[in-house]
Design brief:
The chain is α/β, with parallel strands linked by helices. It has 2 domains: about 180 residues, Up-down Bundle (de novo design (two linked rop proteins)); about 130 residues, Glutaredoxin, CATH 3.40.30.10. About 55% of the residues lie in helices and about 5% in strands. It has a 4-stranded mixed β-sheet with strand order 5-4-6-7. A hairpin with a 2-residue loop joins β1 and β2. α8 runs parallel beside α10. About 35% of the residues are buried.
């Protein structure tokens, strides 16, 4: 009597697992896409002044072809869900058709998982060496992509293992070349302090070399463009407040994002509130009344925003409708 060989559990549950993981990825990227389109701020645990998820979402790498990168992530995860569940919910009566459907969707799942893993790996490189920030959403998405790749490989019995490696090589190379091409303009400028390629934002970093002056902190070395100046005027008009301390390096990073001329408008028109008691401009009583716990802290339209804000984010939360070709990002 010949005993029928049992199907490994991973082969039985691989498609539901893929659908579940891709579904989680779709939920996260969908949430971030909604926040991006509505001008909201993604929930992210970060100390006041420290870089966080919203710095990533407002960086030049967060936009592809004029659309939020998270939108493309959502579409990718949603496609993986569809490919995973299609043979489970729609089963043709013809066994050959069902087998063909299963095979074709498996290959598409493999291609998609490889592409997503390569792209996520490049984003991890950007997080570590360019943007230099810890983003739980990004790390989770990278883990999801890697999990999807592992499941597509071990989730079925492949007849030709060599073809998997060949597919991975081709898809990986195409994805990497395409990614580098998409980000070519950003990578050529804006990632090194002091770069000056016209039309591209420059990355701002600040490392104090001398002690700050209690009267004004450190000197602002960046210059403002028309967009920065118009945003500063808009913040004055709507009564926005920025609470700072002259000795705070993160506060100075915020000043560098605006540039000297724009920040002068902010300072002279009461937007900036100095909280350090030993500063000639210090108004610690106002900061205490506003319950300020870290620097810088923005209060705009009744909402509180802690930490350095890229100007694109300030523009969104303040309903600024002018030019947004800001020169600097963090």
């Amino acid at each position: 009597m010949i005993r029928r060989r049992s199907t490994p559990w991973i082969h039985k549950w691989s498609r539901p697992l893929i659908a579940a993981i891709a579904g989680l990825g779709a939920l996260i990227t969908g949430y971030l896409t909604v926040e991006k389109f509505t001008g909201g701020t993604a929930a992210c645990v970060a100390e006041a002044g420290a870089k966080g998820c919203n710095d990533v979402l407002s960086s030049p790498w967060a936009t592809v072809l004029g659309q939020p990168l998270t939108l493309f992530g959502f579409l990718a995860y949603a496609s993986m869900v569809v490919l995973a569940v299609t043979p489970l919910v729609w089963k043709p009566e013809d066994k050959n058709s069902l087998k063909q459907l299963e095979n074709s969707t498996w290959w598409l799942l493999l291609v998609g998982a490889i592409a997503m893993s390569v792209f996520s790996g490049y984003l991890m490189y950007l997080l570590a060496f360019q943007i230099q920030v810890l983003c739980p959403y990004c790390i989770a998405s990278a883990l999801f992509s890697l999990s999807l790749l592992v499941l597509t490989i071990v989730g079925r019995l492949w007849e030709d293992i060599g073809q998997i490696f060949f597919t991975a090589l081709i898809v990986g190379m195409v994805t990497l070349i395409g990614t580098l091409g998409v980000y070519a303009g950003v990578n050529q400028s804006g990632v090194t302090p002091g770069s000056s390629t016209p039309g591209q934002p420059q990355k701002i970093t600040f490392t104090p070399q001398v002690n700050p002056n209690p009267a004004f902190g450190w000197e602002i070395t960046t210059t403002s463009g028309e967009a920065e100046i118009e945003l500063a005027r808009h913040l004055v008009k709507i009564g926005a407040k920025e609470y700072v301390a002259y000795w705070c390096p993160h506060c100075h990073e915020q000043k560098l994002l605006f540039g000297k001329e724009a920040y002068q408008i902010i300072k002279e028109n009461g937007v900036m509130v100095e909280c350090a008691a030993d500063s000639p401009q210090g108004q610690p009583e106002l900061c205490k009344a506003a319950k300020i716990e870290g620097f810088p802290t923005w209060i705009i339209n009744g909402q509180t925003y802690s930490g350095v804000q890229n100007l694109d984010e300030l523009a969104k939360v303040s309903n600024y409708t002018g030019a947004r070709n800001f020169q600097y990002f963090r």
